[in-house]
Amino acid sequence: MRLLALSLAVVLVLSLLAGAFPTDAAPNPKPTLSVELGPAEQALNASYDPQEATFSGRITLGNAPYAKYEVFLDACNNPGWAASCTPDYLTFWGAGSAEFTINVTAPGRASGQTCRIWVESRATYEDVDVAGNISGSVYLTVGKLPENPNNTNTGTQFFGGVSSGSGTLAVMLAAVVIFLVIGFILGFVVWRWRRRKKTGNSGDGGQ
Could you give all domains of the chain from N- to C-terminal order, each with its CATH number? Predict the structure, then answer.
């Protein structure tokens, strides 16, 4: 009986001692980031001028205790066209989600190319990175470049191929030359006619 009582006393003392020394606290849950983009594909007709396309996105911060988190977004693409996220900086107080847009500029004369676009994101807590994510890709395809109506190779053999501006000047010069030649011929014909008429009148007076 005494042995049982002594054993119970030892167990009780050990339990009290274990409770007096706190164990390590359970670690906080690690935040996660996820990014969704859409639509999966867009297409543009090729142009000699730059063109813009817009994609939509949603970023979600999950598994995050209530605290202030700063999230940064970076629009990336290949072959390296101008691209940006709006907004590219967000603040979360705990878990949440937000929408953003991606603007991509296809340069002029980008004929028959496909641009792959994705977003790299990271979340910080007190300036320390706590989560990151690289989204899936979306695609922007540019069609075949149409013929430029300003690039023409028409022209006569005399003037050769000319552009639209120089072609007008060449036509005007040609017209002036033609009118001068015609005027010279007409003047010569009138002069010969008057001379013959004067010569004929002189002959009649002599008879």
Answer: 32-142 (2.60.40.10), 147-186 (no CATH)
